[in-house]
Specification:
Layout (H helix, E strand, L loop, with lengths): L1 H28 L21 E9 L7 E3 L5 E5 L7 E2 L4 E5 L2 H25 L4 H34 L6 H30 L3 H26 L2 E3 L4 E6 L6 E3 L2 E2 L12 E4 L4 E9 L13 E6 L5 E9 L4 E4 L8 E14 L11 E7 L1
Antiparallel strand pairs: 1-11, 1-16, 2-10, 3-5, 3-8, 4-7, 5-6, 7-10, 8-9, 11-15, 12-13, 12-16, 13-15, 14-15
Helix pairs in contact: 2-5, 3-4
Length: 366
């Protein structure tokens, strides 16, 4: 009997403990956690009817974007004589590629052009004095031989006329034939002298001139291609990014990036040497009707992670609505939203410490 009573007390005790636990759990679970204090205050809208837009900082360029420098040839990088942050002038060397094969090709074509030029000069310099002297001497010798043969024939003819038995008919005919051969040789020597004096044939000169011109143009094309193995700055600016490294292979499509596994990165990225930076904002197409007129349009930029706000100066609107590009990866990610690019600018300073490529929040108003 005592054992049954003790079991009943245990059951009541467990039931009471469960009820207390349920009440405590209900109280604890119904309590709402206190929200954490934000690290920085969200960007407030400074305008009564302001339009929010994501913005990306860019260098101050006439086109509103940085200068992406790609080579026009493919090759292995052998030298990168610039460093990031360096100011460069138009024409300064940025990257040098291995040009040994192209240089040898250009030198070969230059030598061929020089050989063709020498041949052309030789044709234009004809007749050579030495050849002219030889032709004149040959004519003199041929004339002498012809005169000797003619004199011999005349003598035999007179002897034959005086006495047909003094000279045989066969000897007379042989003397006559010898005179005709000598006269033909004299005429040939005369023609040869005239040909030598005339110099090179005009068609030979034209043909050689055409060959020389073609080889010169081939050399010029090869030399121009050789110059492209040296990548130069297309304008004054500051080197922002260098993707090409010594030993890497670069082509006109860009540099292979180990991290993104893409080949569209430019070899060099330049920005304009300017105290200003641009901000490119993308306004949703449904908000375009709310944009103020161009002469009243202004904006304010908020630097993420800080309380810094910067007034913006309106620059331009690119009048073409295109699919929005996610700023995290401009090459690959697109979303089904169309936007209008609006460009502002501001004066950068050491205190702001803003760089191209940085994302900011922008409000557009009037």
């Amino acid at each position: 009997m005592s054992i049954k009573l003790s079991g009943t007390k245990l059951l009541f005790a467990l039931a009471g403990f469960g009820a207390v636990a349920a009440i405590v759990s209900a109280i604890v679970l119904n309590q709402r956690p206190r929200p954490q204090t934000p690290v920085f205050a969200p960007a407030p809208n400074p305008y009564a009817q302001g339009i929010y837009a994501n913005g990306i900082v860019e260098s101050d360029q006439p086109s509103g974007s940085n200068i992406n420098v790609y080579p026009e040839i493919s090759g292995t990088v052998v030298e990168v004589p610039v460093r990031q942050g360096q100011a460069v002038k138009r024409g300064d060397v940025l990257v040098r590629f291995d040009d040994r094969v192209q240089r040898a090709t250009a030198e070969q074509q230059r030598a061929q052009a020089q050989a063709a030029k020498a041949m052309l000069e030789e044709l234009n310099a004809q007749p050579r004095p030495e050849n002219l002297y030889v032709a004149q001497a040959q004519l003199v010798a041929a004339e002498a031989s012809a005169k000797t043969a003619k004199d011999t024939y005349d003598k035999q003819q007179r002897a034959f006329d005086m006495d047909p038995h003094a000279v045989s008919r066969d000897a007379l005919d042989s003397a006559h034939n010898a005179w005709l051969v000598a006269e033909a040789n004299r005429a040939t020597a005369q023609r040869q002298l005239e040909l030598t004096k005339a110099g090179a044939w005009v068609f030979d000169v034209r043909n050689q001139q055409a060959q020389y011109d073609a080889l010169v143009k081939s050399y010029q094309a090869s030399n121009t291609l050789l110059e492209k193995y040296t990548l130069r700055a297309p304008a004054d600016g500051i080197v922002m990014q260098i993707k090409a490294s010594v030993g890497s292979y670069v082509n006109p499509q860009g540099v292979y990036d180990t991290y993104t596994q893409g080949s569209n990165d430019p070899a060099i990225v330049l920005s304009k040497a300017s105290p200003y930076l641009n901000v490119r904002c993308y306004v949703d197409e449904i908000l375009i009707p709310r944009l103020p007129s161009r002469d009243q349009l202004k904006g304010q930029m908020f630097v993420r992670g800080t309380t810094t706000k910067v007034p913006l100066e309106f620059v331009d609107i690119e009048p073409y609505v295109s699919p929005k590009i996610q700023l995290s990866d401009q090459r690959l990610e697109r979303v089904d939203v169309r936007v209008l690019p609006v460009i502002f600018r501001f004066r950068n300073s050491e205190a702001l410490k803003l760089f191209p490529g940085q994302l900011v929040d922008v409000y557009i108003g009037q």
